[in-house]
Design a protein that fits this description.
Blueprint: H1 3-8, H2 12-24, H3 30-36, E1 44-50, H4 56-69, E2 74-80, H5 91-96, H6 98-101, E3 106-112, H7 117-133, E4 138-144, H8 148-154, E5 159-164, H9 171-174, H10 177-182, E6 185-188, H11 196-209, E7 221-223, H12 232-249, H13 251-281, H14 285-294, H15 300-308, H16 314-318
Parallel strand pairs: 1-4, 1-5, 2-3, 2-4, 5-6, 6-7
Helix pairs in contact: 2-7, 4-12, 7-8
The structure holds guanosine-5'-triphosphate (GTP) and magnesium ion.
Residues 52-58, 92, 144, 189-190, 192, 225-227 line the site of guanosine-5'-triphosphate.
Length: 321
Protein backbone atom coordinates (compact mmCIF):
# COMPACT_ATOMS: atom_id res chain seq x y z
CA UNK A 1 0.00 0.00 0.00
CA UNK A 2 1.36 3.43 -0.92
CA UNK A 3 1.63 6.20 1.66
CA UNK A 4 -1.06 8.11 -0.21
CA UNK A 5 -3.45 5.16 0.13
CA UNK A 6 -2.65 4.94 3.82
CA UNK A 7 -3.35 8.64 4.24
CA UNK A 8 -6.69 8.26 2.48
CA UNK A 9 -7.62 5.47 4.88
CA UNK A 10 -6.82 7.69 7.84
CA UNK A 11 -3.73 5.73 8.79
CA UNK A 12 -1.78 7.83 11.31
CA UNK A 13 1.58 6.19 10.63
CA UNK A 14 1.34 6.67 6.88
CA UNK A 15 0.33 10.28 7.43
CA UNK A 16 3.28 10.96 9.74
CA UNK A 17 5.65 9.16 7.39
CA UNK A 18 4.57 11.12 4.35
CA UNK A 19 4.98 14.43 6.19
CA UNK A 20 8.48 13.39 7.26
CA UNK A 21 9.25 12.57 3.63
CA UNK A 22 7.94 15.99 2.59
CA UNK A 23 10.33 17.61 5.06
CA UNK A 24 13.42 15.56 4.36
CA UNK A 25 13.16 14.38 0.75
CA UNK A 26 10.44 16.44 -0.91
CA UNK A 27 11.26 15.03 -4.35
CA UNK A 28 10.41 11.52 -3.10
CA UNK A 29 7.00 12.67 -1.89
CA UNK A 30 5.88 13.90 -5.30
CA UNK A 31 4.15 10.67 -6.38
CA UNK A 32 2.05 10.51 -3.21
CA UNK A 33 1.21 14.22 -3.32
CA UNK A 34 0.15 13.79 -6.91
CA UNK A 35 -2.17 10.95 -5.95
CA UNK A 36 -3.65 12.96 -3.08
CA UNK A 37 -4.27 16.16 -4.99
CA UNK A 38 -7.78 15.27 -6.29
CA UNK A 39 -8.87 14.58 -2.71
CA UNK A 40 -7.91 17.98 -1.34
CA UNK A 41 -9.91 21.15 -0.94
CA UNK A 42 -12.43 20.09 1.68
CA UNK A 43 -10.76 21.22 4.88
CA UNK A 44 -11.07 24.65 6.42
CA UNK A 45 -7.48 25.79 6.96
CA UNK A 46 -7.14 28.15 9.90
CA UNK A 47 -3.83 29.94 10.54
CA UNK A 48 -3.10 31.17 14.04
CA UNK A 49 -0.26 33.64 14.40
CA UNK A 50 1.03 36.30 16.79
CA UNK A 51 4.08 37.19 18.84
CA UNK A 52 5.76 34.57 21.03
CA UNK A 53 3.76 33.77 24.13
CA UNK A 54 0.42 35.34 23.19
CA UNK A 55 -1.20 31.98 23.77
CA UNK A 56 -1.37 30.52 20.27
CA UNK A 57 -0.84 26.94 21.41
CA UNK A 58 -3.31 27.25 24.28
CA UNK A 59 -5.85 28.73 21.88
CA UNK A 60 -5.19 26.09 19.24
CA UNK A 61 -5.71 23.43 21.86
CA UNK A 62 -8.95 25.01 23.07
CA UNK A 63 -10.24 25.47 19.53
CA UNK A 64 -9.37 21.89 18.60
CA UNK A 65 -11.29 20.57 21.61
CA UNK A 66 -14.23 22.76 20.74
CA UNK A 67 -14.27 21.46 17.17
CA UNK A 68 -13.96 17.89 18.41
CA UNK A 69 -17.08 18.43 20.49
CA UNK A 70 -18.91 19.00 17.21
CA UNK A 71 -17.44 15.80 15.83
CA UNK A 72 -15.08 17.50 13.37
CA UNK A 73 -11.80 15.77 12.54
CA UNK A 74 -8.95 18.11 13.38
CA UNK A 75 -5.37 18.47 12.17
CA UNK A 76 -2.87 20.64 14.03
CA UNK A 77 0.43 21.79 12.57
CA UNK A 78 2.71 23.88 14.78
CA UNK A 79 5.34 25.65 12.71
CA UNK A 80 8.39 27.13 14.36
CA UNK A 81 10.91 28.54 11.87
CA UNK A 82 13.44 28.96 14.67
CA UNK A 83 13.27 25.39 15.81
CA UNK A 84 15.51 22.75 14.30
CA UNK A 85 13.15 20.10 15.65
CA UNK A 86 10.35 18.40 13.84
CA UNK A 87 8.25 15.37 14.35
CA UNK A 88 6.17 15.26 17.50
CA UNK A 89 4.60 18.19 19.23
CA UNK A 90 6.93 20.98 20.33
CA UNK A 91 8.41 20.31 23.74
CA UNK A 92 6.44 22.96 25.61
CA UNK A 93 3.26 21.98 23.85
CA UNK A 94 3.62 18.28 24.38
CA UNK A 95 2.17 18.19 27.87
CA UNK A 96 -0.60 20.61 27.06
CA UNK A 97 -1.64 18.70 24.01
CA UNK A 98 -1.37 15.28 25.59
CA UNK A 99 -5.10 14.97 25.96
CA UNK A 100 -5.61 15.74 22.28
CA UNK A 101 -2.75 13.49 21.22
CA UNK A 102 -4.61 10.39 22.40
CA UNK A 103 -7.74 11.37 20.49
CA UNK A 104 -7.83 9.44 17.18
CA UNK A 105 -9.82 12.29 15.62
CA UNK A 106 -6.84 14.64 16.03
CA UNK A 107 -3.49 14.62 14.27
CA UNK A 108 -0.77 16.83 15.76
CA UNK A 109 2.51 17.62 14.11
CA UNK A 110 5.25 20.20 14.56
CA UNK A 111 7.53 21.43 11.80
CA UNK A 112 10.86 23.18 12.16
CA UNK A 113 12.92 25.10 9.65
CA UNK A 114 16.21 23.21 9.36
CA UNK A 115 17.60 26.39 7.91
CA UNK A 116 15.43 26.45 4.81
CA UNK A 117 12.74 29.06 5.26
CA UNK A 118 11.27 29.11 1.77
CA UNK A 119 11.19 25.35 1.91
CA UNK A 120 9.35 25.45 5.21
CA UNK A 121 6.41 27.34 3.75
CA UNK A 122 6.18 24.80 0.94
CA UNK A 123 6.60 21.84 3.27
CA UNK A 124 3.88 23.23 5.53
CA UNK A 125 1.62 23.67 2.55
CA UNK A 126 2.16 20.09 1.47
CA UNK A 127 1.65 18.78 5.01
CA UNK A 128 -1.66 20.64 5.10
CA UNK A 129 -2.53 19.00 1.81
CA UNK A 130 -1.84 15.56 3.27
CA UNK A 131 -4.13 16.19 6.25
CA UNK A 132 -6.79 17.64 3.99
CA UNK A 133 -6.76 14.57 1.72
CA UNK A 134 -6.81 12.39 4.85
CA UNK A 135 -10.24 13.73 5.68
CA UNK A 136 -9.59 16.40 8.29
CA UNK A 137 -12.40 18.92 8.43
CA UNK A 138 -10.39 21.65 10.11
CA UNK A 139 -6.63 22.17 10.01
CA UNK A 140 -5.19 24.57 12.58
CA UNK A 141 -1.76 25.92 11.67
CA UNK A 142 0.08 27.66 14.48
CA UNK A 143 3.06 29.79 13.45
CA UNK A 144 5.37 31.49 15.89
CA UNK A 145 6.17 35.13 15.26
CA UNK A 146 4.90 37.71 12.86
CA UNK A 147 7.76 38.20 10.39
CA UNK A 148 7.62 37.84 6.62
CA UNK A 149 8.42 34.14 6.60
CA UNK A 150 5.60 33.46 9.02
CA UNK A 151 3.29 35.58 6.90
CA UNK A 152 4.12 33.38 3.92
CA UNK A 153 3.20 30.34 5.92
CA UNK A 154 0.05 31.72 7.41
CA UNK A 155 -1.16 32.88 4.03
CA UNK A 156 -1.67 29.25 3.10
CA UNK A 157 -4.67 29.47 5.41
CA UNK A 158 -8.24 30.24 4.40
CA UNK A 159 -8.80 32.13 7.64
CA UNK A 160 -5.98 33.93 9.42
CA UNK A 161 -6.39 34.53 13.13
CA UNK A 162 -4.00 37.10 14.63
CA UNK A 163 -3.51 36.95 18.39
CA UNK A 164 -2.59 39.92 20.58
CA UNK A 165 -2.29 40.33 24.33
CA UNK A 166 -2.82 43.36 26.55
CA UNK A 167 -0.02 44.81 28.59
CA UNK A 168 2.88 44.39 26.22
CA UNK A 169 3.78 48.08 26.35
CA UNK A 170 3.45 49.85 23.05
CA UNK A 171 1.51 46.90 21.63
CA UNK A 172 -0.72 48.71 19.21
CA UNK A 173 2.18 50.57 17.60
CA UNK A 174 4.06 47.33 17.21
CA UNK A 175 1.35 45.81 15.07
CA UNK A 176 2.81 45.80 11.63
CA UNK A 177 0.76 46.94 8.70
CA UNK A 178 1.25 43.53 7.08
CA UNK A 179 -0.55 41.86 9.95
CA UNK A 180 -3.54 44.14 9.65
CA UNK A 181 -3.85 43.14 6.04
CA UNK A 182 -3.68 39.40 6.55
CA UNK A 183 -5.89 39.18 9.64
CA UNK A 184 -9.38 37.85 9.04
CA UNK A 185 -10.11 37.57 12.74
CA UNK A 186 -8.34 39.27 15.64
CA UNK A 187 -8.23 37.70 19.05
CA UNK A 188 -7.17 39.49 22.19
CA UNK A 189 -6.08 36.65 24.41
CA UNK A 190 -5.29 36.86 28.13
CA UNK A 191 -8.37 39.01 28.44
CA UNK A 192 -8.19 38.27 32.16
CA UNK A 193 -5.39 40.83 32.28
CA UNK A 194 -6.03 44.52 32.78
CA UNK A 195 -6.19 46.70 29.70
CA UNK A 196 -7.83 44.11 27.43
CA UNK A 197 -10.68 46.52 26.79
CA UNK A 198 -8.35 49.39 26.03
CA UNK A 199 -6.36 47.26 23.56
CA UNK A 200 -9.59 46.27 21.89
CA UNK A 201 -10.64 49.89 21.48
CA UNK A 202 -7.23 50.91 20.18
CA UNK A 203 -7.26 48.08 17.68
CA UNK A 204 -10.76 48.97 16.57
CA UNK A 205 -9.68 52.58 16.01
CA UNK A 206 -6.75 51.38 13.99
CA UNK A 207 -8.98 49.15 11.86
CA UNK A 208 -11.38 52.05 11.30
CA UNK A 209 -8.47 54.03 9.85
CA UNK A 210 -7.46 51.18 7.59
CA UNK A 211 -7.89 51.93 3.89
CA UNK A 212 -9.28 48.41 3.43
CA UNK A 213 -12.26 49.42 5.51
CA UNK A 214 -15.42 49.16 3.52
CA UNK A 215 -14.46 45.87 1.92
CA UNK A 216 -16.86 42.96 2.21
CA UNK A 217 -15.31 41.45 5.32
CA UNK A 218 -14.54 43.46 8.46
CA UNK A 219 -12.22 41.52 10.75
CA UNK A 220 -13.99 41.05 14.07
CA UNK A 221 -12.10 41.35 17.36
CA UNK A 222 -12.76 38.56 19.83
CA UNK A 223 -11.57 38.34 23.41
CA UNK A 224 -10.49 35.09 25.05
CA UNK A 225 -8.94 33.59 28.14
CA UNK A 226 -7.48 30.55 26.45
CA UNK A 227 -6.49 28.89 29.71
CA UNK A 228 -10.09 28.74 30.94
CA UNK A 229 -11.77 28.50 27.55
CA UNK A 230 -13.63 31.76 28.06
CA UNK A 231 -14.57 33.34 24.73
CA UNK A 232 -13.42 30.34 22.68
CA UNK A 233 -16.96 29.62 21.52
CA UNK A 234 -17.22 33.15 20.18
CA UNK A 235 -13.82 32.90 18.53
CA UNK A 236 -14.82 29.69 16.83
CA UNK A 237 -18.09 31.26 15.70
CA UNK A 238 -16.13 34.16 14.18
CA UNK A 239 -13.82 31.74 12.35
CA UNK A 240 -16.81 29.82 11.00
CA UNK A 241 -18.53 33.02 10.04
CA UNK A 242 -15.49 33.97 8.00
CA UNK A 243 -15.60 30.57 6.30
CA UNK A 244 -19.23 31.14 5.36
CA UNK A 245 -18.29 34.54 4.01
CA UNK A 246 -15.48 33.01 1.93
CA UNK A 247 -17.67 30.34 0.40
CA UNK A 248 -20.66 32.58 -0.17
CA UNK A 249 -18.77 35.48 -1.73
CA UNK A 250 -16.62 33.40 -4.05
CA UNK A 251 -13.54 34.68 -2.27
CA UNK A 252 -12.53 31.17 -1.31
CA UNK A 253 -12.17 30.22 -4.93
CA UNK A 254 -10.22 33.39 -5.64
CA UNK A 255 -7.83 32.77 -2.75
CA UNK A 256 -7.31 29.20 -3.82
CA UNK A 257 -6.72 30.24 -7.39
CA UNK A 258 -4.05 32.72 -6.21
CA UNK A 259 -2.48 30.05 -4.06
CA UNK A 260 -2.33 27.52 -6.88
CA UNK A 261 -0.84 30.11 -9.14
CA UNK A 262 1.89 30.94 -6.63
CA UNK A 263 2.54 27.26 -6.08
CA UNK A 264 2.74 26.43 -9.75
CA UNK A 265 5.20 29.26 -10.19
CA UNK A 266 7.31 27.99 -7.29
CA UNK A 267 7.30 24.41 -8.55
CA UNK A 268 8.23 25.44 -12.09
CA UNK A 269 11.04 27.66 -10.81
CA UNK A 270 12.27 24.86 -8.64
CA UNK A 271 12.32 22.20 -11.38
CA UNK A 272 13.81 24.63 -13.81
CA UNK A 273 16.54 25.88 -11.49
CA UNK A 274 17.51 22.38 -10.45
CA UNK A 275 17.76 21.10 -14.02
CA UNK A 276 19.56 24.20 -15.21
CA UNK A 277 22.29 24.18 -12.61
CA UNK A 278 22.72 20.42 -12.73
CA UNK A 279 23.30 20.70 -16.45
CA UNK A 280 25.76 23.57 -16.35
CA UNK A 281 27.65 22.76 -13.20
CA UNK A 282 28.67 19.44 -14.65
CA UNK A 283 32.20 19.50 -16.03
CA UNK A 284 32.84 23.02 -14.75
CA UNK A 285 30.91 24.90 -17.44
CA UNK A 286 29.46 27.28 -14.91
CA UNK A 287 32.85 28.29 -13.55
CA UNK A 288 34.17 28.72 -17.06
CA UNK A 289 31.39 31.15 -17.82
CA UNK A 290 32.17 33.15 -14.68
CA UNK A 291 35.83 33.23 -15.73
CA UNK A 292 34.85 34.58 -19.12
CA UNK A 293 32.83 37.34 -17.46
CA UNK A 294 35.82 38.25 -15.35
CA UNK A 295 38.05 38.46 -18.41
CA UNK A 296 35.38 40.55 -20.19
CA UNK A 297 35.12 37.93 -22.90
CA UNK A 298 31.36 38.03 -22.44
CA UNK A 299 28.75 40.03 -20.55
CA UNK A 300 26.07 38.68 -18.14
CA UNK A 301 23.27 39.12 -20.69
CA UNK A 302 24.92 37.24 -23.53
CA UNK A 303 26.15 34.62 -21.08
CA UNK A 304 22.64 34.07 -19.68
CA UNK A 305 21.24 33.74 -23.19
CA UNK A 306 23.88 31.19 -24.09
CA UNK A 307 23.22 29.19 -20.96
CA UNK A 308 19.48 29.21 -21.46
CA UNK A 309 19.53 28.24 -25.14
CA UNK A 310 19.64 24.45 -24.67
CA UNK A 311 16.52 24.67 -22.50
CA UNK A 312 14.36 26.63 -24.88
CA UNK A 313 12.68 25.18 -27.90
CA UNK A 314 12.89 26.86 -31.26
CA UNK A 315 9.53 28.58 -30.83
CA UNK A 316 10.45 30.32 -27.59
CA UNK A 317 13.77 31.31 -29.11
CA UNK A 318 11.87 32.87 -32.00
CA UNK A 319 9.83 35.05 -29.63
CA UNK A 320 13.06 36.15 -27.99
CA UNK A 321 12.99 34.36 -24.67
N1 LIG B 1 -3.36 34.61 32.13
C1 LIG B 1 -3.45 33.96 30.98
N2 LIG B 1 -2.43 33.19 30.58
C2 LIG B 1 -2.54 32.56 29.40
C3 LIG B 1 -3.69 32.66 28.58
N3 LIG B 1 -3.48 31.94 27.46
C4 LIG B 1 -2.27 31.38 27.58
N4 LIG B 1 -1.69 31.73 28.74
C5 LIG B 1 -0.37 31.34 29.22
O1 LIG B 1 0.62 32.02 28.45
C6 LIG B 1 1.75 31.17 28.26
C7 LIG B 1 2.09 31.04 26.79
O2 LIG B 1 1.05 30.33 26.15
P1 LIG B 1 1.29 29.53 24.80
O3 LIG B 1 -0.04 28.97 24.40
O4 LIG B 1 2.42 28.60 24.93
O5 LIG B 1 1.69 30.72 23.86
P2 LIG B 1 2.24 30.62 22.35
O6 LIG B 1 1.78 31.86 21.68
O7 LIG B 1 1.88 29.33 21.73
O8 LIG B 1 3.79 30.67 22.59
P3 LIG B 1 4.95 30.33 21.53
O9 LIG B 1 4.52 29.13 20.75
O10 LIG B 1 6.14 30.10 22.37
O11 LIG B 1 5.07 31.56 20.68
C8 LIG B 1 1.43 29.85 28.95
O12 LIG B 1 2.01 29.85 30.22
C9 LIG B 1 -0.08 29.87 29.02
O13 LIG B 1 -0.55 29.11 30.09
C10 LIG B 1 -4.74 33.50 29.04
O14 LIG B 1 -5.78 33.68 28.38
N5 LIG B 1 -4.57 34.11 30.24
MG1 LIG C 1 3.11 27.80 20.83
Amino acid sequence: MSLAEGVRRGNVRATAKLITLIENHPESAVEDLRALHPHTGNAHIVGITGSPGVGKSTLTDALAKRWRKDGARVGIIAVDPNSPFSGGALLGDRVRMQELATDPGVFIRSMGARGRLGGLARATHNAIRVLDAGGKDVILVETVGVGQSELDIVQTADTVVVGLVPGMGDDIQSIKAGILEVADVFVINKADRPDARRLMMELQTMLDLDPEKGSAWQPPIERTVATTGEGVDMLMAAIRHHWEHLTRSGELEQRRRDRYEAELQAVVEDYWRTRFFEYWQREGHWEQMVEQLLRKETDPFSAARRLLTPFLDSESRRVGL
